[in-house]
Every structure is written in C-alpha cells, then in structure tokens.
Amino acid sequence: MGIEYFSKLLESSTEKELLLSKKSNNISTARLISFLIVIAGFAIRFYNKNIVGIFVGVLSIIIFIALLVIHSKVKEEETYFKSKSEVLNKYIKRFGDGWKEFKIDGKEYLKDENSQAKDLDLFGRASLYQYICVANTSYGKNFLAKYLWNENPDENVILERQRAIKELLSKDDFSIHIQTLSNIIGKEQKNNSDSSIESFIEYGENKNVYIPKWMHIFTWGLPTATILSFIFCMLGFLPVLPVFLLFIIQLGFSGFGYPRLMQTLAPLFSFSRSIQVYEKMFEVLEKETFESAYLKELQDKLSKGSGVSRGVKQLNSIGNAVNLRYNQILYIIACGVLMWNYHCAEALERWKGIYGNQIRDWFESIGEFEALISLTVVSHVKENTCFPVIKYEDTPRLKVEEVYHPLIAEKSVIANSIQLNSQTCIITGSNMSGKTTFLRSIGVNLVLAYAGAPVCAKSFDATCMAIFTSMRIQDDVSQGISTFYAEILRIKSMIQYSLKELPMLVLVDEIFKGTNSADRIIGASEAVKKLSKPWVISMVTTHDFELCDLSGSGDVEVVNYHFSEYYVDDKIHFDYKIKDGRCKTTNAKQLMRMAGIL
Question: 581 and 498, same structural domain?
C-alpha cells in the first residue's frame, strides 16, 4: 500500500466527520428550539388556561427526547470518524518522520539488563515499538512488547503467527475498524492508569461477595413500599408524610451503606464510560470469520461460557446505571425512591458470578489482536517486504537479500544483501559509511521475523538464534564501571553464552573502541577467536584493518566485507553498499577538514 491509499481513506473519513459535525450542530439548535417551545407551551397553559398549551408542551417534550437520542447517535458516529481520521493520519506520518511524535513509544519496557533492546532501538523514542504500535489497551501494549523481545523464538509459534498476520493483512477494513475503536478507548482512558482494567479483572476473579443476602429484603421491600405509598398519595388515600419518610429512610440507607457499595462499584468506575466501545469491539471480533488457527483460538476465548457480547452488553447497562451519579438531582431521587446504589451493586455482583472468570480472557484476546495488527504495519507502509523463512537448526544460518532498516524512509534507505553460515564477518569501512546501520538492519528485521511479522527485505532466510549486541555502551559511575569495561563485560556475556553451544547471533559495533589501538587489536582478535564457533554467527565492525588478517590465519573462519566512500569535486559521498573484502580507504582527516578542524 502506498501513501495515496491512506490519503484517500483519510479524505473520505474527514468529509464524513465534517458532515456529522454540521448535523450535530443543527440538531443542537433544534433541541434548544424544542426546549423553548416546551416552556412556551406550559406558560400558555398557566397564564391563559388553554389546553393547547399542554398539547404543545407535551409534544415538544417528546420531540426534545427524540432529538436527544438522535443527537447521541450522531455524536457517536462523529467520534468514530474523528478517531478513524486520526488512525489514518498516523499511517501517513509513518511514510515520513512524523511517527516520532507518537506518544506511545514503549519506553516502560526498556530494562537495564536488556541491552539488545537499546542497541536495536526496539523501545523508547524513535523506536520500532513507537513506529508500529497501534495498541491502546494495556494488554495490547504488553503483548506487542512480548512479541518484539522473544528470547526463545519457536519455529512453530512463528509460523502460526505468520499465518494470522497474513490473514489480517487481507482484512484492511476490519483492521482499521479495530484500530479506530481501540483509539477511542485510548482517548477515553487517557486520564486513567493502565491498572484500571486489571483492577476490574481482579474484582471479577475474586469470589468475595460484598452485599449480604439479607439486604435484598430492604432493596426490594422499601422501594416497593415507597412507590405504592406514592400511588396511594396521588389517589388521595394517603397523606404526603409517609412518602416523605420512606424517601428519607432510603436516602439514609444509601448513605449508611455508601462505603461498602463504593467498594463493590469502584472497579467499574475507572472505565465504565469505555464499556460501550469495548462492546462494539467485542462484537466485531466475535462476528468476524477467520481461517488461521491462531485467530480462531483468540476468537474462541470470546465465545466460551455465556459469550462476550451478551456479557458486555449487560455490563454496559450496569455501567450506564452507575453513571447516573453524574446527574446529582436524578441520582438523589433514584437513591431515595429505588435504593439505586444497592441495585447497581447487586446487579454487578450477579454479573460477576456469571462472567467474572472470563474477563481476563476477553481482554487478553483484544490485546493480542491489537498486537497482531501492530505487526502488520510494516507491510502496510513499506512497499518491499516479505515473510521470512525461519527454521530451527543446530547450526545458525542467515541469508538476506536487499534488507533495509524499517525506521528509515524507504525513498532514502539503501538495501544490502549478505549470506553467512556459522562464520565471523569482519566489516571495515570509513566513518558514516553505513556499517552500524547495516548491523541494526539485520538485528531489527530478525526481531520482526521472530515476532512473526513481515520484514523489510526482498527475501529473508534465517534460523532461530539468540541475539546479542554491543553497540551503545554506557559507563556506570555509581558502580565505577567505565565505558571500556562495560564493553568488556558485554563481550564476556557473549563468550559465556557461547559455551552453551546454542545458536546465537553476535552484533558488535566498533569492537573495543574505548582503548588504544594496540590493546584493541589484541583484545578484539582474541574475542573474535573465542566467538568463532560452529553455532555462532558473529558480525563485527571495526576501523582496525589488522582484524581482517584473521581471514587468512587458519585459526578461525572469517569473511571480510566493507563499506567505502568516494569523492566528487573534493566532496565526500557514500553509496552505503556492502562489498566483499577489506576496506582500503579512510576518511577521518577529510571529515575533520570539512568541519574546519584541520
């Protein structure tokens, strides 16, 4: 898909949004007019004793209520298309650098012990997560993070997930619909913590009952007595006093039981206004037809038991009843006449008894759908993508054709190809020539491949390997660890893991750059030798041409590649293409000369 596709969809969505906004304003005006007519009608009846005034007033009330219902539906549609426009606009931003403004960047998943995630820009600002994430629920964001950092890739799981993602790629309307609803949920819950859903899930799984059964006598007896006394009062059989006393008694009970009632209803408060959107999302997921086993399994989580649609519809009704508290006048009347809070709490307790143990499965299912749709983003935005071939073998293999970095705009990125089999690859080259970007291109695309997603390449064939990196090294003053020693520890962890004789990929950028050249060459040579095992693929960049001599030493199996620059009118240029053999040029002096240092 190209940017034109999303631009057309955005134009259509924006037009509908504007039309609905205009319609909403017109209905608001009509509501105001009908309300004024209500007042005028009853004023005519009051001052002129004309029955026509009552007729006009009652008719205007009916029209006013009808306009309220219509306006609510129009605003709902307007909200939907506004959200859809935002989703489509984000896709358009992914074709340039606008995606770096997205608020959801996954920085909370950056851990000190996960250096690979930092080196490969998996989480945080300007990261892969920020680029592809379309999830707004906490479960969706967590599942995507879990997919992107899979320390033990499983060939079968990858294959099943690939089939699911391929199917989702063929369901564009469904995918955008889910993203639109998810975006609405994200906006409505922006003032609540991600723990709100988890609190409700824990409430559902808790077997404790907060409303004692003996309270049912009061919750039904008192409202019945109040309503009957009111009817008898209207018929002239009772004075007003009994009605008033029953009203006060119910208000007293509501106030007395308020702390316990709030304990029961509190889990619903935090996201009660989002339940209606969840209901629509569940309905869409439940009705969609899927072919892949992975998606069917997720869908089955929604249909087991009494079914998610029925359950969430009932929960939405309870949520609407609970939200009456936002209208103080009606809320006081409802508590005084119907013991409203008690009935809301009882309804929620009954609902919990039926659906409580299913809630976690429901939200996990939504979360996985969000994560899987996120993994389709690269294929939607990039023209040249493919599904990788991933196998588990005892010896590692990596064969990529025209691979490129997913976070670089496709119009300016340069693709490269390489094939390695249990080898050490020494990559030399001048500054700014593309060595580091190439390593990251390999690493990031391998992360996508293990997640089950399409990758940015013409073809991509690899085995399951543990990924180790040493690129962005930081010192730790509090621990007295210098940058150089931090890199030593990083390389040490790679060597220790290699002793397990498990397939691994090592990506090292400018090895031991923090020390003098003589020590660096000796240390780097020994590190390369220790990592040159039949179950290891090592890719090491360096400015030390001496490391290239390992290729002919007979001690290890080393292949040399390089990047280089060229000059036109004394100006430096790069083609960013990897080439066989060692580099024969340097450009440090030229760059310093261009900067005015030399």
Answer: yes
Tell me the DSSP string of 15-64. HHHHHHHHHHHHHHHHHHHHHHHHHHHHHHHHHH--HHHHHHHHHHHHHH
How far apart are the C-alpha atoms of 524 and 519, rounded to whole Å? 8
* In a domain? residue 98: no
Query: Which value, in Å, is the radius of gyration of the alpha carbons in the chain?
Result: 33
Residue 386 has what DSSP assignment? B
Q: Count the helix, strand and coil residues of the chain and give each as a percent rounded to the nearest 5.
A: 60, 10, 25
Same domain, 192 and 67: no
Please state whether beta strands 579-580 and 459-463 pair in parallel, antiparallel, or not at all (unpaired): unpaired
CA 275, CA 186: separation in Å to the nearest integer? Answer: 12
* Residue of 135, 130, 132 lying closest to 179 (CA atoms): 135
pLDDT for 597: 61
CB 340 within 8 A of CB 321: yes
The residue type of 72 is S
DSSP state of 428: E
Separation CA 348–CA 317 (nearest Å): 10
What length is written for the chain? Answer: 598
Verify that 546 and 507 share a domain, yes or no. yes
Residue segments in the chain with a per-residue pLDDT below the cut of 70: 42, 44-54, 190-195, 208-214, 305-306, 475, 477-478, 480, 553, 585-598
State the pLDDT at residue 595: 60
What is the enclosing helix (H) or strand (E) of 187?
A: helix 172-188
Report the amino acid identity of residue 223.
P
End residue of a domain, out of 42, 74, 93? 93
Helix axes 215-234, 240-256, angle to 10 degrees: 150
Strands 416-421 and 536-542: unpaired
Q: Which two tokens stand for residue 317?
A: 């009704």
Task: Give the pLDDT confidence score for residue 175 in this predicted structure.
Answer: 96
- Taking the C-alpha atoms of residue 193 and residue 269, their distance in angstroms, rounded to an integer, is 12
Q: Which of 443, 462, 447, 449 has the alpha carbon at shortest distance from 159?
A: 449
Provide the whole-model pTM.
0.87
Indicate the burial class of 16 (C-beta count within 10 angstroms; 0-12, 13-18, 19 or more). middle
The rounded distance, in Å, linking the Cα atoms of 106 and 103 is 9
Give yes or no: residues 286 and 433 share one domain: no
Same domain? For 258 and 231 the reply is yes
- Spatial neighbors of 393 by CB under 8 A, at least 6 apart, are 463, 464, 503
Tokens of 315: 């929960």
Please report, for residues 60, 306, 405, the alpha-carbon distance to residue 362 in angstroms, rounded to integers and kept in the order given. 44, 12, 35
* Domain ranges, residue 554: 382-594
Task: Assign 563 to helix, strand or coil.
Answer: strand
Residues 370 and 416 in one domain: no
Does 414 share its domain with 559? yes
Q: Is 164 domain-assigned?
A: no
Last residue within a domain, chosen from 345, 374, 403: 374
- Asked whether 284 and 177 are in contact (CB, 8 A), the reply is yes
Find where tokens 């105001």 sit. Answer: 32
Task: Give me the residues paired with residue 539 across strands.
Answer: 425, 507
Cα atoms in the Cβ-side hemisphere of radius 13 Å centred on 25: 5
Q: Give bridge partners of residue 476 from the DSSP assignment.
A: 481
pLDDT score, position 426: 94
